[in-house]
Design goal:
Elements lengths: L2 H14 L16 H21 L8 H28 L14 H19 L1 H9 L8 H20 L5 H21 L9 H25 L6 H39 L15
InterPro entries: ELO_fam
Keywords: Fatty acid biosynthesis, Fatty acid metabolism, Lipid biosynthesis, Lipid metabolism, Membrane, Transferase, Transmembrane, Transmembrane helix
Subcellular location: Membrane
């Protein structure tokens, strides 16, 4: 077989391994194009939104942000509680769990993971609020890459490995989001806004950690959880770590230069780039 034929054969084998029967008929999961189209729409808004807002006043959105952050805090807590409860009272192996041996527990995990997948669509609003508030400095490549990719990755997770050890990273990430979105809600208090940049960094770090910790046990305690997903997630977490490292280094350099400027200016008005509003 030629290289192209081998690749096509491999891709067909991957598609055959798809396990959509347990999510058949569920919203957005039957076919991939709707998820892809929503991602394209997201990217178009990210591209066009700042241009539209360029000569317009920022929108406060304070009340809407409070409701949004409260809603995502509650949803994240629900997902975290339901997954941990199902695993704790079910027959799941905490180190490595396959996708076809736990019966009712698998069903519970699948139901919660659909909400996790759908929450990635809801979280597109993070970026839209940045655009409306003209906080364009927060719309980094890392931010866009993470938001756009997670929705698509979890469509494939739900169609190939919708339970088993897929729960681990989702439960860890849901717990982090409880802290993050509750903190974002509190950021409506002006005195807390300077600390939001720290939360943003913690969010990106924990995102990478949750994906990494999701699959490290698979490598240490092998089971029937598909190995291909392990290799893909290792690749994905490497990209997140690389992007976050660059983000952290650039942020550190920026704060260092701002601190130096403050010392040199001795009380004069500092560059506005040194004091950014992170309340989005």
């Amino acid at each position: 077989l030629s290289h192209l034929d081998k690749r096509n054969t491999y891709l067909r084998m991957l598609w055959v391994l798809r396990d959509p029967s347990r999510v058949q008929g569920w919203l957005l999961l039957d076919n991939y194009p709707p998820t892809f189209a929503l991602t394209v729409m997201y990217l178009l808004i990210v591209w066009m939104g700042p241009k539209y807002m360029r000569h317009r006043q920022p929108v406060s959105c304070r009340g809407l942000l409070l409701v949004y952050n409260l809603g995502l805090t509650i949803l994240s807590f629900y997902m975290f509680y339901e997954m941990v409860s199902a695993v704790w009272h079910g027959d799941y192996n905490l180190f490595c769990q396959d996708t076809h041996s736990a019966g009712e527990t698998d069903t519970k995990i699948i139901n919660v993971l659909w909400w996790y997948y759908f929450s990635k669509l809801i979280e597109f609003m993070d970026t839209f609020f940045y655009i409306l508030r003209k906080n364009n400095h927060q719309i980094t490549f890392l931010h866009i890459y993470h938001h756009a990719s997670m929705l698509n990755i979890w469509w494939f997770v739900m169609n190939w490995v919708p339970c088993g050890h897929s729960y681990f990273g989702a439960s860890l990430n849901s717990f982090i989001h409880v802290l993050m979105y509750s903190y974002y809600g509190l950021s409506a208090v002006p005195a807390l806004r300077p600390y939001l940049s720290m939360v943003e960094e913690i969010h990106h770090t924990s995102t990478a950690d949750s994906v990494l910790f999701d699959h490290v046990p698979d490598n240490m305690w092998p089971c029937d959880f598909p190995r291909g997903w392990l290799y893909f997630q290792i690749f994905y977490v490497v990209t997140l770590i690389a992007l976050f490292s660059n983000f952290y280094i650039q942020t550190y350099k920026k704060h260092f230069h701002c601190a130096s400027d403050n010392i040199e200016m001795e009380g004069e008005k500092t560059d506005q780039r040194c004091s950014q509003d992170h309340s989005g």
